[in-house]
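Q: Can someone sanity-check these two? First one:
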Amino acid sequence: AKVCASSNINLSLCLGTPRRQKFEFPPCIMTSPPPVQPSADYGDGTDDPIGGERIHGFNSTFSVTETGLHRPKIVTCIGSKANSYRQLVKGEDEIRQDAVMSQVFEFVNNLMNRHTRTSPTDGQAKAPVQSGFAMPRKRLRLVTYNIIPLSPASGVLEWVEDT
């Protein structure tokens, strides 16, 4: 999406006076989910059980895209480990279908990864033979990004640079 260079808007003008709410463990950054623990052991709740990056704040300005019917907003979330996460915030836009398609793409990526790693005969990846020469397998992957529907008509998407 194109971003209008002169569209930096002060976030506090849109949100009003910030109300600081104290959380023992602030929410995780939506577009950067914490890792899943294979053991399913997330502790007893007295310590930060996941160790993922959490929301520390937001940049004071945001941008409005030049494209899109409802002009999505680009905000920058600052994490508890000082990393910045650009996010596209959409309102009045159906993104639930996008989220489902992203899950389908992840499933396809898993299938392609599994197919390139195994062979039906001995478990080792085999290169296809064409004209008597072995060709190396290419690791194909669909680019995916996190999509979080917040309601039937709004949501937050992970910003992908250089797209």
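And here is the second, same format, sequence then tokens:
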Amino acid sequence: MAAGDLTGMPFPLGDWGEPAERLDELYRRVEDDALRTAEWYLSDRAWKRRGARVLRAAAALGAVTGAAMPLLELTGSVPGASAYGYLALLLGAAALACDRFFGLTSGWMRDVATAQAVQRRLQTLQFDWASENVREVLGPTEGTASEAAERCLTVLRRFSEDVTELVRAETADWMVEFRAGPTPLVMQSLGMAGSRADASVPPARFPMPPGTRPNMPRQRPPEQPR
């Protein structure tokens, strides 16, 4: 598997004549997948967080500089500093726009939330698995060995489904944010403006058939003087 990919692994196959060994192997595989998923999100968060902090710092510096330059010009310390203040404000706004366009801040926040959710779910799995092992060591008080194995498989399957759902939800959030970029908003505003312009023109009361010309109303001739 290439570095940076978040893909699944083949399901371990083998002889189920020793179900305890096969279940332990399957548990290790599921646990490794969860740890790999959390590590992927944490590593993906690192560069996004650095980029977001740089852009946020640039935006704050631009805002402070843009507010300070006109004051320096008023005091006479730096003549013509207002132009540089406007430039600093423009650069700060551009930094915020880049952060919003590339989704750095929102991206690393999603990565942190997903990694924490996977780790929290993994802790629940570890305690559930330990509980099943303790139950088997003390002796199955309810059900048969096949039912105990089925319970273990159900625990692992539900955990895998939960992790897959977490990844799917994070991907869906990214897709929604990507689709709600500046271009769709501009197109939507243009469409709304066009609809408002069309709505401002009142429609004709009686539509005329094609190929006909409007007739002017006849005027009443003037009456003869008596």
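A (reply): Looked at the second one. DSSP finds five helices and no strands in the chain. Confidence is low (pLDDT under 50) at residues 182-206.
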